[in-house]
Design goal:
By secondary structure, the protein is mostly helical. Helices cover about 75% and strands about 0% of the residues. The model has no long low-confidence stretch (mean pLDDT about 90).
Length: about 325
Amino acid sequence: MNEQGFVDRKDVDWKRLSALCDIAERGIKKMTAEELREFIRLYRRVSTDLAIARTQSSNAPLINFLNDLVGRAYGILYRAPRKPLQKVLYEAVATAAQTMRRNRWFVLTSALIFFGSAVFVYNIMNWAPATRSVLIPSGMEHVFDAWKSGKFEARTGSQSGMMAGFYASNNPRTAIITGAVGAGSFGLVSVFLLFQNGAILGSLAHEVAPLGKLGFLLSSISPHGVPELSGIVVAGSTGLLLGAAVINPGRRRRSDALKAVGRDAIVMLSTSVILMFIAAPIEAFFSFQPAVPQWVKVVVAVISACAWATFWVFFGREETPTPPESNR
């Protein structure tokens, strides 16, 4: 084959196909109908040129150039169409709801550990007051004292903004740790962290109840507590899911069992983090604002709880997702 003559004859097509690729990569809709037809025609021609070069030439740079050009055009022609942003968001939210339902027993177990520990600690402090020094961390005494006062100090907008930033950085980190440690600890550390967080809530309730401030406590934490406590429960269920895969891998290797539940674990852990982010501004700007009546906070919390329950139970049911390997 006369390589120089081959290149001279075909170079115009190669340059034109490369230019059309530049246009198409910015968006296929930017091409006119004539350009699209020309693109397909040139793709076929250059594919033939590549086949000729591979069989009749030993010029590696030429073959590599044509291979890259054909591969680039192929990727443009056969790539999946981009979904609209709203469709991507809808599918992501639906996946979260479907994943929660698929792993509902882990979620329910996590909720039982968290709220059960709160009830347990509340009662154990009644039966054995000496346990107070063990169950209440020394560093949280000032927090407990603030709740016993039964009132909040007014915050400015900037102060609320700073607190929102604190909650948005601290609480998601807690969720990530609670869920991520499940694989390496057989789920035990996740259980401990769930118990620990529930115990703090139970001991705080025990401290304020004799002062008649239990209603104040519950009504104050309920608006942001709906997403925030849901977030810690979902994070804990992630740890339980990973721990269960390690403890009972079935006939698979433990690494394969973890891979099988990995997609669900990532979705659940991401969901828990998002719930924490949702709770942060509510906690900073609404829950602890003294100007907001307590009954308003309760109404908002009830509406929020009903909305979230409806979402988890019903959203995305019209979809028919393929279950992960672990559930087949």
